[in-house]
Write a structure and sequence with these properties.
Elements: E1 5-9, H1 13-19, H2 23-28, E2 32-37, H3 41-50, E3 53-56, H4 65-82, E4 86-90, H5 92-104, E5 109-114, H6 124-140, E6 143-146, H7 149-157, H8 185-191, E7 200-205, H9 214-227, E8 231-236, H10 248-256, E9 260-262, H11 270-274, E10 278-281, H12 290-297, E11 302-305, H13 310-313, E12 320-323, H14 328-340, H15 342-360, H16 362-376
Parallel strand pairs: 1-2, 1-4, 2-3, 4-5, 5-6, 7-8, 7-10, 8-9, 10-11, 11-12
Helix pairs in contact: 1-3, 4-5, 5-6, 9-10, 9-14, 12-15
Length: 378
């Protein structure tokens, strides 16, 4: 019996490579899976690691009418050639283009997963345009999956669609591999390179961009360091100056402040989490942030902002603290609280891994996804 064909698609290959690690291989045991994204080394990694066929279709993350039209035509041709039973997209641009192309070519099942929404933090004409794009994505889709309750509420509050919204398990796109995100002896040995005796180490993992709250984090840490010279900050992640640059003085601090250790992009973040005492994640917007799940799995309490995903993962004073976004004063007091309350930090650390295991262990999400696929592909 021939397997039914499913196309999984994202705008850039790193999304497939990092967000769906292991999931495509699992799905390929039940269906014929084709992974589609813009060309790049990460797409080669997906093909080799997941054992699925990959097809490169150039797509722009930013709005570019001519290039977007060319991408749409390429996707239409691809879907006509492959005749998939389902197209399942993640990321905004791939969602818009693939849902539209799948609707045009009459693909029976057209599913989009909203891993995050851009329009709630936009304004003016740009917000109206982004809302229109998401409405068009939903209009063309037959099934819509918000990654968490916060994303679901935004879709409803902004009247993006009246179609049913289905959250997999307790949220998140892929769940957490608890055996991988674990303080194994090898990871603890590697972490020794980044620890400093007698210091409390905060860790931030993510892109060095304005939307992640990097400006506020830099200014807050500079002030904190003046009062508490035993505090350290590990920064793990790349810059994206063209897309969302940070302030020049904040960038200067990243490279020259004595208490900040900038590690750039790292393929394995576990040693840095194991070297830290807490995660600090002052982002403006998220869908369902993997880094907060990963930190919890590694036994780290977190300081996060009151935004989608973060406020679902963190239970105040059980596994972390939730603060308002864009608020340096409260960010400072929260980081200072962690420094001055070691017993509570130890308690939150002891709770962190169990709370992730119960709600977000990977097989919970995979089983929910398989069940959903089986129901709609009958």
């Amino acid at each position: 019996m021939m397997k039914k064909k499913i196309i999984r698609i994202s705008t850039v290959p790193i999304s497939l490579e990092s967000l769906l690690k292991g999931q495509l291989r699992m799905l390929n045991e039940h269906y014929e899976v084709i992974a589609v994204s813009s060309p790049g080394k990460a797409l080669d990694t997906v093909r080799q690691r997941e054992g699925v066929r990959t097809i490169a279709v150039p797509m722009e993350r930013r709005i570019s009418l001519l290039k977007d039209l060319l991408s749409l035509i390429r996707l239409i041709i691809l879907f006509l050639r492959e005749h998939p039973e389902m197209v399942h997209s993640i990321t905004p641009k791939a969602g818009l283009l693939s849902m539209l192309a799948a609707w045009i070519t009459r693909v029976p099942i057209r599913m989009h997963t909203f891993t995050g929404l851009v329009f709630p933090t936009a304004s003016g004409k740009m917000q109206k345009l982004l809302i229109l794009m998401d409405k068009l994505t939903c209009a063309c889709a037959t099934h819509i999956n918000p990654e968490g309750e916060g994303v679901k509420q935004d879709l409803q509050n902004y009247h993006i669609t009246r179609k049913p919204l289905h959250i997999l398990a307790n949220g998140n796109i892929n769940g957490i591999d608890m055996s991988y995100y674990n303080r194994t002896p090898d990871i603890l040995q590697e972490a020794k390179k980044y620890r400093q005796a007698g210091c409390f180490t905060f860790c931030f993992i993510g892109r060095m961009v304005r939307d992640k709250g990097i400006n506020e984090l830099m200014y807050t840490f500079q002030r904190l360091y003046q009062q508490y010279p035993h505090v350290r900050l590990l920064l793990v992640g790349p810059f994206e100056q063209k897309l969302d640059p940070i302030a020049p003085d904040a960038e200067k601090m990243i490279f020259h402040h004595p208490g900040i250790h900038f590690m750039d992009f790292q393929p394995d973040v576990r040693p840095f989490m194991a070297a830290a005492d807490a995660l600090v994640f002052p982002s403006y917007r998220e869908g369902f942030p993997n880094v907060v799940l990963q930190a919890g799995a590694m036994g780290l309490p977190s300081i996060v902002t009151d935004i989608n995903g973060c406020n679902e993962i963190i239970i105040p004073h059980r596994n972390g603290i939730i603060i308002p976004p864009k608020n340096e004063t409260i960010l400072y007091s929260s980081m200072e609280y962690f420094l001055s309350h070691p017993d509570e930090v130890t308690y939150m650390a002891s709770q962190a891994r169990e709370l992730i295991t119960i709600r977000y262990e990977q097989h919970l999400v995979w089983n929910a996804l398989l069940t959903l696929y089986e129901e709609i592909l009958k």
